[in-house]
Amino acid sequence: MREREREREREREYSRKRNQKIMKLLPLLLLLTIWIDRAESKTKKKNVLYIVFDDLRPDLNTYGVDFMSTPHIGTISFRV
């Protein structure tokens, strides 16, 4: 019984130390990501498509509803 408790305690300690190392590396990873993103943004334009639907419900022609006419949304969905 005591051996199991010791084993569990060792596993907890290992997990705690691993989590501490990960938490120390996260800010570095975040800064590195931001730095790379800024370097790329100077050389390359990003393509951004922002689509907003108000009251999106399944009453779309894409979902097989015949009484709803949504040609532009249908064109986008059939491409994907």
Return the string of H and E elements. Answer: HH
Structural class: mainly alpha
Low-confidence stretches: none
Biggest sheet features: none
Shape descriptor reads elongated
Amount of helix: 55-70%
Can you walk through the features of this model?
There is one protein chain. This protein has 80 residues and is an all-alpha fold. The chain has 2 domains: 1-45; 49-80, no CATH class. 64% of the residues lie in helices and 0% in strands. The longest helix is centred in the N-terminal third of the chain and has 42 residues, at 2-43. The N and C termini lie far apart (57 Å).
Write the topology of this structure.
Elements: H1 2-43, H2 71-79
Features:
2 domains
Summarize the structure.
This protein has 80 residues and is mainly alpha-helical. The chain contains 2 helices and no strands.
